[in-house]
Specification:
about 0% strand; mainly alpha; two-stranded parallel sheet
Length: about 350
């Protein structure tokens, strides 16, 4: 959430092409409301079961016993795929920003697709260097970046407000564009929503290697950024949807109780269905409504994240994230059926056992 304004500045072109000025404004508001609903629901899960393992752990807690191990395993793979794509998208955006500065300063420069790929690799190598060789200086570097984050907001937006050309309020709030030549303006708006959504999302060797492999997409595709962003959004949002939808099912069927878990109940998790709400909980109908809004928003974003940015669709403009996401689901499902079901027992649950109880046992 801290890099929302930086993320929006780097991906706003998608919303401007499909949606226009008004599409950017209303798309941002829609993404803000939807993301708030999703993470309010996720906050209830964090309060219920605070764990660093996140989505795959919560799915194991909420899913029916007959499929909890499989759904948890699949959710874990989707989360990993989403974070790998997120690293790739950060490197890609940084590399293209550098390339944009080169174009700005050297008008005679003729950019090539493979130039962006090499800049991608340079950014990834820099990230590995900082997190390994000079990792002791990482806290100081993060503090510096925090200062730049705050000051940069004012350094960029104040000149934009005072020096940019003025347009009418009608142009900002009523001008929609359909740069992708979609059959309707509404369809174009939802295709362009991806950039606003990504702005709210925001093992080193393995991660860097996979990110470098994903960067090869940019050599053969002119819309590589859309592919990588779509893969990030689709994979992470699918894992969020698994959690939110199961929580909605539990709260509508009375599967979560307003009481403290005993040590015996906790020891039986995730097999136990006796789940209890944590300190943060939105009770009653409001909790159900927010949960439904979050699930609806996730479905819309996941569906449109697989769409290409425009028509007609060619091999170079195709959005291949649907292929990548499908492969993750298929491979993880097959691997679970063949091997993983024999060794994967679900997330580890830590139980605090009282001292007197241990002494008496």
């Amino acid at each position: 959430m801290l890099i929302t304004w930086e993320g929006l500045l780097t991906v706003f072109v998608q919303g401007l092409t499909n949606g226009g000025p008004a599409g950017l404004v209303y798309g941002y508001l829609l993404a803000w409301i939807g993301t708030l609903a999703v993470f309010t629901t996720m906050a209830e899960l964090v309060s219920m079961a605070p764990t660093s393992s996140g989505q795959y752990h919560w799915v194991a807690l909420l899913a029916p016993p007959s499929c909890q191990r499989f759904l948890s395993y699949l959710t874990g793979w989707l989360t990993v795929a989403g974070w790998q794509a997120f690293v790739a998208s950060a490197c890609y955006l940084s590399g293209t920003l550098i390339q944009g500065l080169i174009i700005l300063q050297h008008p005679g420069y003729h950019p090539k697709l493979w130039h962006g790929t090499f800049l991608f690799w340079a950014v990834a190598a820099c990230a590995v260097f900082v997190n390994t060789v000079v990792s002791r200086s990482l806290p100081k570097l993060e503090s510096l970046i925090l200062v730049l984050h705050v000051l940069g907001f004012f350094a960029i937006f104040i000149p934009l407000i005072y020096l940019s050309p003025r347009t009418s309020a009608s142009f900002v709030f009523r001008k929609f564009l359909n740069g992708g030549d979609w059959p309707s303006q509404g369809l174009s708006f939802f295709v362009g929503l991806l950039g606003n959504v990504f702005a709210f999302l925001v093992a080193i060797g393995v991660t860097s290697s996979i990110a470098i492999l994903l960067s090869l997409i940019s050599i053969g595709s002119t819309v590589a950024l859309n592919d990588v962003l779509s893969l990030t959004v689709a994979s992470l949002f699918l894992s969020y949807f698994a959690c939110c939808s199961l929580l909605l099912w539990r709260r509508c069927t009375g599967g979560i109780f307003d009481r403290k878990l005993t040590s015996r109940d906790a020891a039986n998790l995730p097999q136990s269905s006796q789940l209890s709400w944590g300190p943060f909980h939105i009770p009653g109908m409001w909790g159900v409504v927010i949960n439904i809004i979050g699930c609806t928003f996730l479905i819309i974003v996941i569906f449109f994240s697989f769409w290409p940015p425009g028509t007609p669709v060619t091999p170079s403009t195709m959005n291949y994230s649907v292929l990548a996401t499908g492969l993750v689901v298929i491979i993880s499902t097959v691997y679970y059926a063949v091997c993983a079901h024999k060794v994967y027992t679900g997330p580890v649950v830590e139980v605090m056992v009282p001292v007197m109880e241990r002494m008496n046992s």
